[in-house]
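Collaborator request, handled under Task 6.
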Amino acid sequence: MKRPSRLALLSTAGVATLGIGSAFAAVLWLQGRLIYPLEKIRGLAPNPAADHLERVTLKTRDGLALAVRYKPPDDPDGRVVVLFHGNGEDLSQRVHIAHDLIAAGYGVLLAEYRGYGGNAGKPREAGLYADGRAAIEFALRQTPRLVLHGYSLGSGVAVQLATEFAIEALVLEAPFTSIADVAVTRFPRLPVRWLVRDRYDNFRKIGAVRAPVLIYGGDADSVIPPQQFAQLHSAVRAPRRLAVVGGADHVDVWTKGGAGHVLRFLGEIDMRAQPA
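Structure tokens returned to the collaborator:
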């Protein structure tokens, strides 16, 4: 059998290298769209129920104006829950949670991100942290009693801010250990762990949170592997609780039982906070 020529071998190696390089470039290009799928968001019909909450415009430290929604608690000394939504929705898609919390007497701030909900700017990890800080700084001007609730991508924002601000509780719905860990499950044959720019490393950060933490998610989650809920829970050093909701996927945890876990958790914190 005739051996392939040196030129043919080099050509084959070049094609393989080009293919791998193209795959890496595609991952780098796609990760912005995978983490922040703004094309999908722009075609999403806002939930008009969000308009029942007051529209407030916040100013971030880097000069962006963000439109959010706010409802104060029934009790002037009551808690405000700041809701950070996921990557494939705007704040209005969290309004069913907001109304359940309002019915229970809590105040609610539906936070929003740059590039989402008609806001200016391009989303990125540092930018979303800046947006979250603006939301919390506004909420702290209303009350010192805050709870942060982060869903999916919003868990990354909530964990970061829970390490920066004094809060009374942290609630994470369908959270991940890190974006890099999620990416590995999507692209197992590529070194995506080294390519991911926006990492949202919850596992590394959550040990610094001092407030009680509730982590809840569905055992049928097809987006975030449910074992990441337990892994993240294991890294919490504060009082912690893990609730896995049977039959719930990534998008329906609240309605399939998560609401009960969250309201019980907050109610127990309320009881502990009452003077003896």
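The cover message to the collaborator said: "Residues 8-22 have pLDDT under 50 and may be disordered. Residues 144 and 167 are 8 Å apart (CA to CA). Please let us know whether this matches your experimental observations."
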